[in-house]
Amino acid sequence: MTPRRLAVGMSLWIPNLFSGIRVRRFADDWTSATVELHVNVFTRNYVKTAFGGSMSAMTDPYYFMLVMHQLGRDYVVWDTRGEIEFVKPGRGVLTAHFAVPREKAAELRERARGGAKVLEWFETDITDASGDVVARVRREVYVREKKRVTAASANGAQGAASPVGDSPSR
Description:
Layout: H1 3-12, H2 14-17, E1 21-26, E2 32-38, H3 52-57, H4 62-71, E3 75-86, E4 93-99, H5 102-112, E5 118-127, E6 133-145, H6 147-161
Antiparallel strand pairs: 1-2, 2-4, 3-6, 4-5, 5-6
């Protein structure tokens, strides 16, 4: 899956499409993403400002997706928890930028080595067209090396410690 295809697919995914959520881009190296929420008759609340659930939904999967794509198939990555603080009413087009630098992904990979459970918080702001902060969002991401990888590493270490000609039984 390319970043461009994922952005288009996520924008056309029914929950996003009908919630006014558009994925503007994923960086080619999976280190960032930009998402917009178009506040309209379907995405606003009783007082005609952005519905809080829509703002939460616009931030839901992106940190875990950025981490997952950077770490690869040998890791389990989930979005486990989220918090949102509403700062001011949101109107018009709202934007959230997500960033997971390569250094952060490398740190998570190292901390999860051997099957350790890693929980990491990421933060972003949702801003309006004038750049004012509408909401502050925190998302917690779970990372763990897959058991098959951990087991293979352990077996490889045992095999490496064995004398020449002596291999572990299978």
